Amino acid sequence: MQRNIEKAAKNSLIKLANLVTKQYDGYNPHQEVMSEIQKSCSRKVYFDIDFDSVDIDLILADLYKIINIDCITVLQTRGGFHLLINLKQIDKKYEKTWYNSIVSLNGCDIKGDNMIPVPGSYQGGFVPHFI
């Protein structure tokens, strides 16, 4: 994913303006700007979907009915796994249905921070890895 610095700068200004017009609650301006940079993408190659506390084999069995499996890379994490979906590789027949079908699966967490641990790093006693 590439970052859009112009978009991040505009969103940072808005975020900081909203924060400074309210009573100080301990926010960190540097962290707020870094967060906006992280969230401001200009081009997305992969779509990340997080699954927590579910059996990966059951989800993969369901995925065969929902999307072409060759567009998916799975990253195993401490509490579950992430599906990294290559958007350009999605078959035409799934283009309009894959997202709603996947997010309706048990254990799907679309409300999270949408960030993944770095494969090979240390994550609370676990090393995230591709499977």
Description of the structure:
34% of the residues lie in helices and 21% in strands. It starts with a strand and ends with a strand. The chain has 2 domains: 42 residues, no CATH class; 85 residues. The mean pLDDT is 92. It has 131 residues and is α+β, with helices and mostly antiparallel strands. The strands form 2 sheets. The protein has a 5-stranded antiparallel beta sheet with strand order 6-3-5-4-7, with no helix packed on it. Strands 1-2 form a two-stranded antiparallel ribbon. The chain has 4 helices and 7 strands. Helix 1 packs antiparallel against helix 2.
Compose a concise summary of this entry.
This protein is an alpha+beta fold and 131 residues long. The chain is 34% helix and 21% strand.
Quote the distance from N terminus to C terminus. Answer: 21 Å
What letter string, H or E per element, gives the SSE order? EHHEEHEEHEE
> How many domains?
2
Radius of gyration: 17 Å
The spatial strand order of the largest sheet comes to 6-3-5-4-7
Global structural class: alpha+beta
Flag low-confidence runs: none
What about the largest sheet? 5 strands, antiparallel
What's the overall average pLDDT, rounded? 92
Strand content: 15-25%
Question: Into which percent range does the helicity of residues fall?
Answer: 25-40%
Number of strands: 7
Shape: globular
| DSSP helical segment count | 4
